[in-house]
Amino acid sequence: MARCKAAYDHWLIMLCVLVFASSSRSATNHEGEILLRFKNSLSDTSALDTTWINTTNPCNVTLHWEGVQCDTTGKKVFGLQLQNMGLTGLIDIDTLTELPALQTVSFMNNIFAGPMPDVKRLPLISVYLSQNQFTGDIPDDAFSGMGGTLKKVYLAKNGFTGKIPSSLVALPKLIELDLGDNQFSGKIPNFQPRKWVMLNLANNRFDGPIPPSLSDLPPADFEGNKGLCGRPLGKCKSKKLHLLMIIAIVVISAVAVLLLCALCWIRGRRSRQASQAPSAQQENAQMKPVARKTRGVLEAQLPDPEVEDEYKKAERGGELHFLRKDRKRFEVQELLRAPAEVLGSGSFGSSYKAGILSGSMVVKRFRDMNRVGKDDFYDHMSRLGRLSHPNLLPLVAFYYMKEEKLLVLDFALNGSLASHLHGKRAPGQPGLDWPTRLMIIKGVAKGLGYLYKEFPGMPVPHGHLKSSNVLLDHNFNPVLAEYALIPVINKDHAHKLMVAYKSPEFSQTGRTSKKTDVWSLGILIFEMLTGKFPANYLQQGKRANADLASWVNSVVREEWTGEVFDKEMKGTKNGEGEMLKLLKIGMCCCESSVEGRWDWREAVDKIEELQERDSEEEDYSSYASDGDVYSSRAVTDDDFSFSVAA
């Protein structure tokens, strides 16, 4: 009898264990189903596809889901760390509310856009939404009901506007708050005294006095807000004195304007007949290098006294920060005093060929790199210095000054692709032949693909891809220049000058995408095949349109003629079919709809498949046009078929 009772007790215990395990497993699998539903609301989820799988549970120790944190019991999802994954789409708060233990979420450095998600519906301790593309005012009650838990809020580097929500100010446990690099405005509210672990309100549009409760914080927490005053910044001026200063400024400005108008009228009268058409002037500025010798980089024009002072300090004693161990080191004084040749003036500053004892280097001066602080600038330059690819121009060293930055680069013997396509040549000197152009575009594609892989979280890894930023070495192999600079360039200057912001998507929506650099690659393909300069690059602001792409599309739609290809491109007799394929690749890269445009992998793969000569079994001797769909009788590869939209 005792033996039976013991067996029964043992069976009962085992049954309870099985029921409990089944219940736990079911609960865990249920949370996996919730996360998969959440994933379906996202786009570009390749970073999650290998681990977020139906057959596993999110808290499995051996098959841990990427970015998922579980509590100490290993049964409940505690946090989501989905930063730096290139995610877009919708952050589905409705689905996340089904995770009862969720306390922390991070979606930093992705491509989410639109208004801020309704996080108040989640019992969170921390919210990380920095470095996305969120925009608009944050509702005043956006953080209502979160006072019992919320301690950390990170919203930096987005496009938020308006005032700081009162519900955020009222959070009693908040000790970390980062609102930097947005467009918040108005007065900074009076937070209740607390021991801040981190507070950043820099680079917004706040004005008025800083509240007494924040006056003991470092000045860096408030920098970049022109209207702020009071401790720890400068003293606030009285309204009366402020009014007198405004009146004085208005009077002085009016007199200066009148004098300037008179001077312009006199000069215009003298030079009106000799003036050049504005568009031609712009194009010449883009294409022609400045042939001028100087005794050093310091001799170049320094109109700003602050910049001149910085250069004098650098000459007296400064240190270049070298990023490559395989380069012979030299002092900044040697660089600044070395004989220099002005190579040209680009979008962001002048370039010089400096002759130092160890060889020729290129020094590029940037005046528009004040977007980040010194530490962040050093970190980004160090990251660029670690890049290594045969189709990237190496960043050798840099020098940091407040008003200007110097980047030291290798010298490319054969200049830029733009100068070979559009510059004046000596009589009888041939243009680039087809094999050389094909080699160049293949190298460009490889370099761009490398940047996409090295900067997976950066929507536009190059940002300024154009023929003047494709340099040619002694063998005419291409190396990309001015890449990955968007994070350190002032936004206003970037939007005005950089090629990425001439794209259709930025013109239409004010945003770039993961495929923006692909559009720039397509324009470069058209430029190389046609020999025509992309006139849309000369336009400023959001007026840009793909004039060159529109012209190519119109030729293809209406009538195919050999006139589309550059007449100065030699060696085309046996390569017309491959040239046609490259033209098709350019059209797929320049699709104005981002959804219909190729991604970088497909573009790079198709370019890599191109050959110098047509294959023997294919006949490209004739071409036909049928309405909106361009077809070649000989091009029958199903993988390469496409239509041209009317």
Give an overview of the whole structure.
- The chain is an alpha/beta fold and 646 residues long.
- It has three domains: 28-229, Ribonuclease Inhibitor (Leucine-rich repeat, LRR (right-handed beta-alpha superhelix)); 286-411, Phosphorylase Kinase, domain 1; 417-646, Transferase(Phosphotransferase) domain 1 (Transferase(Phosphotransferase), domain 1, Orthogonal Bundle), CATH 1.10.510.10.
- The protein is built from 16 helices and 26 strands.
- Strands 2-3-5-7-9-11-13 form a seven-stranded mixed sheet, with no helix packed on it.
- A hairpin with a 4-residue loop joins strand 18 (340-345) and strand 19 (350-356).
- Helix 10 packs antiparallel against helix 13 (516-530), helix 10 packs antiparallel against helix 16 (600-608) and helix 13 packs antiparallel against helix 15.
- The longest helix has 39 residues, at 2-40.
- It starts with a helix and ends in a 15-residue tail after the last strand.
- Mean pLDDT is 78; it is low at 1-28, 270-292, 540-546 and 617-646.
Structure characteristics:
globular, alpha/beta, 7-stranded antiparallel sheet, 16 helices, 7-stranded mixed sheet, Leucine-rich repeat, LRR (right-handed beta-alpha superhelix), 26 strands, Transferase(Phosphotransferase), domain 1, disordered C terminus, 3 domains
